[in-house]
Design brief:
The chain is mostly beta strands. The chain has a single domain, classed as Lipocalin (Beta Barrel). Helices cover 0% and strands 58% of the residues. It contains no helices and eight strands. The protein has an eight-stranded antiparallel beta sheet, with no helix packed on it. The radius of gyration is 12 Å and the shape is globular. The chain starts with a strand and ends with a strand.
Amino acid sequence: MLFGSPRSHDRGAYGDMTLKFGADGTLLYITHEPDRDQVMRLTYRVEPGVIVSDQPSEPRSERTEYEFAEDGALVLAFGGRRSRYVKVK
C-alpha cells in the first residue's frame, strides 16, 4: 500500500525528498531545499509493480517501477536510477 509519506533514505539519487501519496490519487512530490520546499502536485494510479503519475499542468504520464524492500522501504526505479524512501509519520 502506497498511502502515506515516505521520505528519501539516501539523499544522493534525487536529493532530500518526501512523497505524499493520498488515497484519492493525489501525490505531492516535495523537494526539501535549505531555504524552502518545492512542491509538485501530481496525480497517480498503481499498476502491478508500476506507479503511473501525471502532472495536470503538463499532462504526460510517467511510469516508475516500484517494490518494497525487506525492511519496508519503498524502492523506486526511474530513468536508470534507484531511490529508497522510508515512511515518516
